[in-house]
Amino acid sequence: MPATPAWPPESAPRLYVSTPLSEGAAVPVDGNAAHYLLHVMRLKAGDAVLLFDGTSGEWLARVEEARKRDALLLVERRSAAPDRVPDFWLCVAPIKKARMEWLVEKATELGVGEIHPLLTRRSVVDKVNPDRMTAHMVEAAEQCGRNSLPIFQEIQQLKAFLQNFPEGRHLFFADENARAEGGAPVAEAVTSHSGPGAFLIGPEGGFTEEERDLIRALPQTVPVSLGQFILRAETAAIAATAVWMAIAHS
Q: Yes or no: is domain 88-248 CATH 3.40.1280.10?
């Protein structure tokens, strides 16, 4: 007899939904998500879909009803436990739209727990669109197999962020002057400061001297060097995150 096909098939699409998931739950899907399932992936009744709601893990569902513009999915069972997300914050001055979208996408793929957009004196962008950022995080999570989304915090002033920074968390300060001022190489600094962490990445024009003084005055601050060259903000953010994640998971 032929072998029973694996279930779910490896080609089953993954989809983020806002509906809380549980065994037996009926999940209506419409709009762009329905278009993707029905007209891009060409699913029909009985086909498998992997769902996640950001908190309860990943769930296996089948297409119960497939219509032209919407579908109804029926959840069968949990297929993966909730993510164990590292306690890591990425704190960045907002940058131009396309590069900020790329940054949050890669931060999601790397496992960042929270993203904190911070306004600084030299910030070239003073607004972010949380809905647009969330859309990019959702797409990244669907593609990379992550079952949760980073928390995208409200934009705030750097000074207010520092005033409320928690005592039990290290603030790794990536600044272009760090190497000249005694900042340790990033891998060395992360290895010697275990526990909850946050990386602070400045704007394209860098921090002002006043801002550097405020950051360095915080007892939890750990100056770090990201190498001999000055990196663009999004490059620095993802390079620093990758190093922290690699060491945290080693």
A: yes
Tens digits of per-residue pLDDT, 199-231? 999 998 889 999 999 999 999 999 999 988 888
The enclosing H or E element of 34 equals helix 31-35
Span 8-12, mean pLDDT? 69
- Tokens representing residue 150 in the block: 């980073």
Fold topology of 14-80: Ribosomal Protein L25; Chain P (2.40.240)
Q: Which long-range contacts (CB under 8 A, 24 or more apart) does 106-109 make?
A: 106/140, 106/238, 106/241, 107/150, 107/237, 107/238, 107/241, 108/136, 108/137, 108/140, 108/141, 108/144, 108/146, 108/149, 108/150, 109/140, 109/143, 109/144, 109/146
How far from 66 is each of 7, 47, 77, 240, CA to CA, in Å? 20, 10, 20, 44
Q: Summarize pLDDT for 41-85 with one digit per residue, the tens.
A: 999 999 999 999 999 999 999 999 999 899 999 999 999 999 988
The dihedrals phi and psi of 129, each to the nearest 5 degrees, come to: -100, 100
